[in-house]
Each structure stands twice: as structure tokens, then as C-alpha cells.
Amino acid sequence: MVKHILQTEVQNYINANLKTDLHSLLLKNSPFAEVSMAEIVQQIKGKKVALKKFPFLLKEGIIFPPNLNLEQASSQATAEFKAQLLSGGKFLDLTAGFGIDAYFLSQNFADVTLVEQNIGLLNIVKHNWKLLNRKAAFINENLEEFLEDNTERFDLIYLDPARRDSEKNKKFLLQDLSPNLLEIQSQLFETGDKIIIKLSPLIDISYLISVLQNMVEIQIIAVKNDVKELLVFLDATAPSDNVQISCVNLQSAEHAFVFDFKKEKNAVSEFSEPLRFLYIPNNAVLKVGAFNTISKAFGLKKLHPNTHFYTADEYKADFPGRILEVEIIEPKNIEKGEKFNIISKNYPLSPEAIKKKYKIHDGGGRYLIFTQTRRGKIIVKSR
Check: CATH 3.40.50.1860 for 73-252? Predict the structure, then answer.
């Protein structure tokens, strides 16, 4: 497939149809004997995904894999972030996939090995890396077989287990992933001291800490407040008495929020009615449940035990989230036809119901927040 897709006339046809409706294209016969219309459409889809997800691949001659591999691949933003943290001599990616993480991580390692059991996918990565002038050892093997036969030791091992079963159902427990991480833990540590595992951000953090050995850190990575992935850092040389949690919101001006997971259980929040500023944590912080730790860290008070909004009279510029200067308003003072960004948390009405009830519209630069304090339901408006 790689050879035929790269023919000049095929590439020209792909580029000429980047804005063509893909469903209509699939109804046509391919003008090329060696390349099907489905393969052509897949390359067009790949270029469209790359435009937003990994623009560094928008080069002539790059080949894109099937949709599932595009969906499972990390974005350029998250891969570049990981690459800033890590360096060393020998790097091993046990689940190379489309190779986005490996491409950026490999920049800081002298020796790179990619293991991928899908030969078609591996050939695509091999072709793309040659075009991008990046060298590696490409091994077409099942990772369990690789670990069984391997005699080398690596400075860093990276893996991103498959999170769907044979029927495409999502899986979250480590023993249900492919590979089964609980079965290969000891083999991983026999191959390298430092291990990074990429997992779904939906996985339960307490569960992870209870079943994985030598965990030193968990990172929750969001991009523009959209949580994308969870990274687990294991280190054979550092027993995990305390696990550090880092909440990162990329492509924003926010600082990372770092805390000790054990301290959240012992932290206690104070409560208050809304003061001058309202603090709304970003989604990475909310995902890990640092509801009391963040209150203590920034000297903030919560509005309600089940409302993760915080307040203070002071402006804390390094808070990881949105900060609004607010005032409490009465429902009768909401003017019909006004535009607001509407937030409803721990409140009986949804944003859609609120818009209908008060005859207001989405948009504008102001916020209207419907929530609760310990005294009851309130509405606050940003100034």
C-alpha cells in the first residue's frame, strides 16, 4: 500500500480532493488500478486529522494509518510536553502505534527501539520516520514475546496499552487492557528502571495506586481544559510511599498544580458565601478530585461541600483555572435577551432550562453562574 499511495499521480489526486465530500468520493471508482478509493479517502482523513492533532506530519509523502490508529495516537501537544520531561541513553516504546509519542521522546535519547505487532502500521511508521530523518530499531513483535527474549536494559520504557477488547468495547481495569499490566510488571522492571504508562483519564486513581508497584507520580494532562490522558510514572529505584499528582493544562497560561495524593484525604475546606472573586478549577484538577487540597493551597473557601467553586477577596494569579470577579444577583434582575456564558453546578436547572426560563442567550464576555452555597441556591454574575 505504501508504495502505490506514494505515486505522484495518486498524491496529486489526494491533495486535489482535500475539500471534497468523502461520502461522495467513496461512491466513485478509483482512477488507479493499484489503489482503492477507500485507501485514498483514508489518506484524506489522515491529513485532516493531522491539521489539528499533529501538524508536524503535514509533509509531502507522509502516509496515514486507519482511523483507529489516528484516534489512539497522542496529539502533538501532549507528545511535545512529555518530551520536555525525559531524556537518557536508551529508549524503548513497547506499543509504538502510529509513533507520535515515540517521535518526540526520541529527540532526547541516543538509542531508540520501537516495538509494534501490526506489521502494516510499523511499515507506515518506518516510512514516515525515514522521511522525517529520524532513526530507530523497528521490531515487528508481540511485546510479551519481546520482553521474554530481550537481554538489553533501557533507561526509559514507554507503553500505551490498548483500551478496547475484540468487540471494540472500552476497558479500564489494568488486567483487562492489552497487555495485562499486572502480569508484566516484573518483566518491565527487569528491562528498565523507569517506566511510563499512558492510560485513559477516566481510570480511578486510588485503584491505580493500590495495584501498581513503585509508582512515584501521576500526571493528568489537559489541552485547553479538555482532559486528554493520564500518565503513570514508575521507578524501580524509588518505592512509592507518597505519590505526587501533577495537573497540567497545556496551551493555557495556567501553572501546573502539584500535590501529594495522601494529603487530600486529610485536608479540610472552610466555607463561605461568594466573596469578591470566584475560583473555578480547571478540568485536570477536578479529574483528580483535589477538592480540599486546592482550597488549602491557595487559601480559598468553598461555597458548598458538593460545589467545587471557591472564593476569596484576594486575587490569586497562579490559580489553575478560571478567576472571575463576581456579585450576587437576584433572579428578577436578569434582563431578558441578555447574553451570558452560563454555568450550572449543583443546581436543579440545566443551562438549556435556564436560558429558556430567563429568556437569555449564550455568548458575550460575561458569566452567569447558577449554584449553591451552604445557605441555599444562588446566582452570581461576573463583573
Answer: no
